[in-house]
Amino acid sequence: MPEPTSLLIVDDEPDIQNLIKRYFSKLGFLVFCAGSGADMDQVLAKQPIDIVLLDVCLPDTSGIELLPRIKQHYQVAVIMLTAQAKTEQRIAGLNQGADDYLPKPFDLAELHARINAVLRRNEAIADKQIELKQYRFQGFTLDTRTRTLCYKKQNIKLSPAEYDLLLVMLKNPNTVLDRDYLMLTTRGRPASAHDRAIDVRMGQLRKKLFLETQGTPLFSTVRGGGYMLDCEVLVL
């Protein structure tokens, strides 16, 4: 099953947050909300996000000012939302890197169509780049072309589930990822109350990488949080 699309709504109007969240949650999106630029930073630091709906007018800053910072630090698509549909404002947002622009009020079906269009466009770009993508960390190389993991020119056998889990961790180094998110992104479903599948896979992955590095721990367990990859990752 495909990974659920993660959506972050950055808007200080609770009614708009709730309206969009209900609509897209029913469509299977993983939805997060933020009412200010500071709240947005906290969510982006903790959760991998695919697309941001960014209101131009926020209580602590302007969405136009936030946009360059988002694009510099995160690989995420951004659709700007505004109640002031001025041409110069749209041009400023697009020039700063916005993927699309939608004036308020908007139709939720149109917003959904625009999100799909942006994601398809970004996915097409990513597909062209994935043939060259490698993740290098602590002497290891994970090659997405061949789905292989190597350490000092020796192949390390991974199950499909272990590979998927490792890839998610490599895409989010030094970031705490909770069990529900890891289950959703690797298996396409949330973890049940007593589901220990992620813990089992993480244990297997830890053991294989621990043996190769002769005892250097790469993953940490954050109590009440989840797991984190504790190393720098070079993406080629």
Keywords for this entry:
single chain; 236 residues; alpha/beta; Rossmann fold; Arc Repressor Mutant, subunit A; 2 domains; five-stranded parallel sheet; five-stranded antiparallel sheet; 8 helices; 43% helix; elongated
Structure description:
With 236 residues, this protein is of the alpha/beta class. It has helices spanning 14-26, 37-46, 63-73, 87-95, 108-129, 160-171, 179-187, 197-212; strands at residues 6-10, 30-34, 51-55, 77-82, 100-103, 134-137, 140-143, 148-151, 154-156, 219-222, 226-229, 234-235. The protein has two domains: 6-128, 3-Layer(aba) Sandwich (Rossmann fold); 133-235, Arc Repressor Mutant, subunit A (Orthogonal Bundle), CATH 1.10.10.10. It has a five-stranded parallel beta sheet with strand order 2-1-3-4-5, sandwiched between helices. The chain has a five-stranded antiparallel beta sheet with strand order 9-8-7-6-12, covered by helices on one side. A two-stranded antiparallel ribbon has the order 10-11. Strand 4 (77-82), helix 4 and strand 5 (100-103) form a beta-alpha-beta unit. Helix 6 crosses helix 8 (197-212). The longest helix has 22 residues, at 108-129. The chain is elongated, with a radius of gyration of 19 Å.
